[in-house]
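We emphasize that the prediction below concerns an isolated chain of 844 residues; any contacts that depend on oligomerization or on bound cofactors are therefore not represented. The input was used exactly as deposited, without trimming of termini.
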Amino acid sequence: MYSIFAFDPSLPVTLELIGNRVPPEDQPMLEDMISRARREEGQFEYEHRIVMPDGSIKYIHLIGHATHNAEGRLEYIGAAQDVTQRRVAEEQLRERELNLRRITQTIPGMLWSATPDGAVDYRNRPWLDFTAMTAEQAEGWGWATAIHPDDRDAMIEYWRSCLASGLPFDTEARMRRFDGAYHWFLFRVNPLRDESGRIVKWYGTNLDIEDRKRAEELLRARELSWRQIVDNIPGFVHTTSATGEVEFINRQTVEYFGKTNESLKDWSRIDIVHPDDLPRVIEAWRASVETGQTYEVEQRNRRADGVYRWFQSRGRAVRNRKGEITAWYWLNTDIEDRKRAEEAVQSNERNLSLIINTMPILAWSARPDGSAEFFNQHYLDYVGLPLEKLQGWGWAVAVHPDDLSALIETWRSTMSAGKPTEGEARLRRFDGEYRWFLFRANPMHNESGEIAKWYGTNTDINDRKRAEAELKESYLRLTEAQRLSKTGSFITDLVADDHNWSEETFRIFEFAPLTKITVQMIRDMIYPEDLPPFDSMIARAMTGKDVDFSFRFVTSRGAVKHIRGMARVIEHIAGRPLFIGALQDVTDSKIAEEALNRARSDLAHVARVTTLNALTASIAHEINQPLSGIITNANTGLWLLSTDPPDLDGAREAAQRTIRDGNRASDVIKRLRTLYSKKESWPESMDLNEAIREVISLSLSDLQRNRVIVRHELADDLPIITGDRIQLQQVILNLVRNASEAMSTIDDRPRELLIKTEREEDNRVRLSVKDVGVGFQPQATDKLFEAFYTTKRDGMGIGLHVSRSIIEAHYGRLWATANDGPGATFSFAIPCSLTGSETRGKSE
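Result of the prediction step, given as a token string:
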């Protein structure tokens, strides 16, 4: 006792002397213990600190038992044990455990582990915080409820296959955040095997691979759930003689072992010490008894119920004033809980080290000044360098030279700010290849708020960087293609009036980029005549149907533009249709089309006039006949009036014939004037057979002069058609004249011309002009309708080309076929009537 308290053995020990050595904060506890002992006269046990002469602190464990001496006076018999070493060891164990817990709390990643059968038995705090699940909910297979329903089945099936094959697990899936939002995560799991190759654990990480600008920047650490070590150390005391024979055993010892005092005196021969520990214990006991050195051994003792528990056994020699050993005092303290705690902490240390070194991520830690001190095994394997080479600032050798200065500047700024950070740089792999990594670091603060350490991870983002570059290049190519083709794209929610335009769309409408566009802004620019169809198109789109559109609008500088486009529904959001579409500035093509239409109209007029000039003789005959009749009937009328008496009835009849011939001449002139006229085309309802008869009548004299026999087979059930009468008669007249000219050199057979109309099944009518002329070579079929191609010596080569343009404008088709016999047949087929949109397009 004097040795433990470092008191002078020549001085008496008093409570005051002891109290002076107790720190002030422990004084109340000491006074309370003394007061209770005096009042209750029972057993007491407690620990307190004492201050040694050199200023150091000792922890003393005291056990006392009240008794009365022969005179009946109260005395206490007890023992004091120096437990400083145990307390220091416990503090060190707690500090090591706290340090490991801090690593998992501070490391910016989601960590977890599972048993060999795949049941999760640990998830760190970031995982639980992200999903808002408790450890109990995530245990086993409960974590699967946090996976997106569309990903869950495939992920579980893949996980089971990895459990069966023992291969690492690497996949991507969406995981639900606490607020219901889903984030994409990279799941990576590696197996831990024992020396025999058997899987004893699975360790994994979840890496948030959502767009880093939208993703969580801080990865939370999960605090491991540790069972608190209960520190309840009972003491068992006995005394022996100087030679080691047991003299006294306290009551607690007897009750604990369930033996008698006599049997316990022969402790080395009974089974209270574990057989594996007994030889070592006896040897240490003998050495202490022989040398007088302090005895201190850890051993397993068997309790009365047969259970072995670890004890710390200490023995100290009692010496007289001469220094001779007179007795030994022994104290056995139950340290089973401490031993288990030590084993648990050591196991946890091993597990955490395995987690950090096995998880598929580059992890590291640094001192407050930024110098690195730790890199996990995955980091070392990746760069192919030993830990000693990377510590301090040696890690910089693996960073790409072009990225190093910026990365170090970011790291220094981060240390100065003391806040989490991230940066990007290329890191050299062991084979010399550089890959892009995302560097993230979080500070760990001590209890005073100062940064005690930095923890960080490096995540491979090389594939993402490549994809971003390819996406940017694709976007630039698309933008350039849109600009060259004057085609813009858009995504629009009409109900919400929310519109996302491409750069070219803003350029077409001459709006500033990123202007907030509304439908009303577009309506304010549209031509008044185009507003009704535009509003109709918007109303149709509001119902969720695909739309096509074309309209004109006036820009802010007064320029007129023509737009044509379409939009298709790609999805529905909250019941509203979301459209994707494209539109094109067709102003140049519309201007060119209008010029082409004017040229075609002029060309058609030239062809019509040329054809009619060739029919001059026939036209003159058609006019001369009624004029001759007029003269004859007028002379006859005069003669009948000059008779005596005048023949009024005969004169009246002659006058009527004169009127008839005058109307006939007038009709011929009217038809000629119409064909010669150059006016805007306009569709009308007409009888195709009637139009054919008018053309035959106009050209009959010319046909007869060329000895052409005209036959016609006009269908009686031919429906009324809608078209431009003048243009269609021009086509018929051109086909008839071409057939006549094709037979001008034929003398060995009759020059027969057949004009035929018929009704087709697809609501169309067909007209055919068949001759028995010279025909044409099959290979020349396509050339017949080319502009300025002709087989005539004095032909212009525009008749058939203009005719095909007219028929195509009527949404029909004009073609030529060689007859089985001599000659050829030219035919065209057109719809019986034009639709509203076709009529509008034709008029435009």
